[in-house]
Design a protein that fits this description.
By secondary structure, the chain is of the alpha+beta class. It has six helices and nine strands.
Length: about 180
Amino acid sequence: MLPQIDGLTILGGLRKNSNIPVLMLTAKDEEVDKVIGLRMGADDYLTKPFGMNELKARVYSLIRRYTVFSEQTEQKSKIEFKNLSINLETRVVHVDGKTIELTNKEFNLLAFLASHPGRAFTKKQIYAEVWAEEYSFDDNNLIAFISKLRKKIELDESSPSYIQTIRGVGYRFSTEV
């Protein structure tokens, strides 16, 4: 029991501005108190009395959840290179800090290639993934999209540094950016 403010009020204030892990340590051991604490944003709830080994295990669990799992989620939602940033959740692309407007297909094409840097993809593989259609051996459509994309994201489209052509195969996203 805190002297001037209760833990739920503190928790509410924390959750307005932060996603830090919160483990509530409390003497309130009624189920309703636990449910309220967890619903308000606590990650875990431990009632007194408790053993030190259990406390340590819960703290280590929170640390693991907020470091290892958060890093994996961040990596999946944002792809960053030297001058290029791709947010997969908001579908926003920045080049040198400037927002670049892309069509839906252009974004999907960029996100697909950038998600696998260094890996070569055939035109057939790209078509299947981005267009979700069978490749019809019409290179013009894919070439046109690659060209438009390069004009928007490359610093020098005559010497592309992001999307590289692999003659006779397809394309790859460079690992050197």
